Each structure stands twice: as structure tokens, then as C-alpha cells.
């Protein structure tokens, strides 16, 4: 047996993220008005540059009560 059928699935990495648009939520998921930002994402990010900075700058006023 010299037949190797080992095939690495490299094409799977072609698109690293299923999302190419900002997934920042606006409103409540139950609202009819609910929608995502939809701007172009930064590479390997789920948010646009604006919302990436917001995601990393979470308000710590709520966490202070510990
Ligand atoms: Zn955004």
C-alpha cells in the first residue's frame, strides 16, 4: 500500500472569518429595530475599527462595585 489519501484541508483557511462586516449590535436582539453596525471589519476582527476600540474600552464603573 503506497497510496496515500491524506489531504490537508488547506482551502478551508481561505477566508479566516465568516464575518466581513461589523457585528456590533444596535438595540436589543428582541427589538424589531435591532441591527448590526455592518461597517467593514478590521482584519481578524468582528468589529469595525470604531467598535473595536469601544469593545476594548469597557466601562469599569459597573465593575468597581466588587
Ligand atoms: Zn461597527
What topology does this entry show?
Layout: E1 25-26, E2 35-36, H1 49-55
Antiparallel strand pairs: 1-2
This protein binds zinc ion (ZN).
Average pLDDT metric: 76
The profile of the biggest β sheet is: 2 strands, antiparallel
Q: What are the distinct ligands in this entry?
A: zinc ion
How are strands sequenced across the largest beta sheet?
Answer: 1-2
Can you give a write-up of this model?
The chain is mostly loops. The chain has a domain at 1-26. Helices cover 11% and strands 6% of the residues. The chain is built from one helix and two strands, in the order E-E-H. The protein has one helix spanning 49-55, and strands spanning 25-26, 35-36. Strands 1-2 form a two-stranded antiparallel ribbon. Strand 1 and strand 2 form a beta hairpin. The longest helix has 7 residues, at 49-55. The radius of gyration is 20 Å and the shape is elongated. It starts with 24 loop residues before the first strand and ends in an 11-residue tail after the last helix. Mean pLDDT is 76; it is low at 10-15. It binds zinc ion (ZN). Zinc ion binds next to helix 1.
List keywords for this structure.
66 residues; little secondary structure; two-stranded antiparallel sheet; 1 helix; 2 strands; 11% helix; elongated; binds zinc ion
